[in-house]
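It is worth pausing here to work through a concrete case rather than discussing structure prediction in the abstract. The textbook approach is simple: state the sequence, then state the predicted structure, then interpret. We follow exactly that order.
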Amino acid sequence: MTSHTAQNHGHNVSIVPLLNNLVETKHASSQNATTADEIAAALSLVFQNQLSPIQCSSFLTILRTTERDREPLVLARCGQAMREAAAQVDSKALRNIARVRGGKEGSYHGGFCDLVGTGGDGWSTFNVSTTASIVASSLLLLSKHGNRASSSTSGSADLLQAIRPIAPVIEAVTAKVLPSVYERSKYAFLFAPTFHPGMRHVAPVRKELGFRTIFNLLGPLANPVEGNIEARIVGVPQEGLGSIFAEALRLNGARKGMVVCGEEKLDEISCAGRTHCWRLVERPNPAFRGPRDEEDEEFTTSDEEGEPRSLIDIERFTLEPSDFGLERHPLSEVSPGRMPEENAATLMRLLRNELPRCDSVLDFVLLNTAALFVIAGVCDSDTSDMGHGDDGEVIRETGPGGLRWREGVRRARWAVESGQALASLERYIEASHAATD
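Step two, the predicted structure:
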């Protein structure tokens, strides 16, 4: 950290110089403004328990009031700091698992995927992203990063722990055993307190502050398997955060993903109306001078200063349920969210294909599952052989962004009706229990 960033005073580190500079400069464009790297370095002290509660709360408050925590580069660098402080996964082992178990199809290369929202939209809807991630694991490798409820009645961890008759042991899935879990299952839930133990140091401060801080935005950027993520969908509760998050993902190195915000300020793809979308699109870089058919995904030009193989553009468009071939449903039918036990019962009814075909919760889940299938690339395939019950009739019709949203729904519905989504959950539950042995 630079001289005006921190001073060491025994066990705790003083960041008074940084705090003063943040207050005086306020904006990144100001002369001598605190840089994103300096902010991230200060944040990393939180995970080491090296900030006093007063300086920690001052730091979070200033970031909020100056809106420095709404800058893409700050979010990207702070997300990186949070991942570096997390329990470290064996990325090489996960790459090998993806090559063996990933199931390449269309433009999906078999990598890990995530479906996550920042939370805080105030709707307290059914646990759609968690349910959709389970359904999506019928065709994709899923690394669902989540926690217990903060502002809603039922968080992703609460939902999973309420499953009956047998719930997964979410705390047993640690960084050390994660590869072995994926040897048994295409789904894993990465429980935030297990993978981010340093967050316990800031929990009392966040509770006392009572308002949302940068940590309420960092969750989608702090997946411990970030380096292995191929595709993701991130939900944000404010339209103004859409382009910010898309750029933060691009700065983090993401090449395939989409940020979404329901028009009702919903951090999911809305079943009630329009959803604003910011899609990361990878395009060939005409200035790249290396071979263009290199199979090794880690291959780069020998010149580290050379041009990258590809460039990432951000495309904006809107989606509606009709683009997926589905009816609209008012959010009142999927919110307010119920207690975890009730939501878990609905989850199991959905996975057992016991909900009516046009059920509002089912359609809500199909929308969001379909979108992940589309963004991951499986819907780019002109053939389909998912297994029993798949008629192989690919829906080639395209919608916003030139993508096959209806094909995504066809595949998502197959995952439910064939029982593959339920089987995927059962394999994860078994793998989590095996991790305790």
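Step three, interpretation. The two ends are 43 Å apart (CA to CA). The first helix runs from residue 16 to 25.
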